[in-house]
Amino acid sequence: MTKTLAGAPYTLLYTDDVSRNAAKLERFFGFAPVEYTPGFALFFFGEGRLGLWKIDAVEPRAEARPGACEFALSLDGGRVAVDAAAARAIDAQLTILQEPTEMDFGFTFLAALDDGNRIRMFSRSEAPA
């Protein structure tokens, strides 16, 4: 028997500068965080959430620095949507780590915030017929 957990999934990225990175993500995503303090910002994506948390406020203290994982968002619209998101990332002054490219899971690009936190956008490959 399969059980599911109720509630919205959260991804929390630790950052040195919530204000700067939240402003970049607001420009990139095209909408403001629903919650904002100097120590935390929260963006909603459908049923998911992306939070930026000031690293020196995390308890218990975080041992690893940002950049070891990524927030990934599946886009509808194929290559066109991914290319448009990559253009917005450049406009928002994110660092492009991977130009739009085809990979085994779909068409994707990878960008980073100033502190190394990674943001991936992709459009899933069509399943073979």
TrEMBL record:
PROSITE patterns, alphabetized: VOC
Superkingdom classification of source: Bacteria
Gene3D superfamilies, per database record: 2,3-Dihydroxybiphenyl 1,2-Dioxygenase, domain 1 (3.10.180.10)
InterPro entries recorded: Glyas_Bleomycin-R_OHBP_Dase, VOC_core
All copies of domain VOC, residue ranges: 7-124
Official protein name in the record: Drug:proton antiporter
Record organism: Jiella pelagia
The organism's taxonomic lineage, starting at the top: Bacteria, Pseudomonadati, Pseudomonadota, Alphaproteobacteria, Hyphomicrobiales
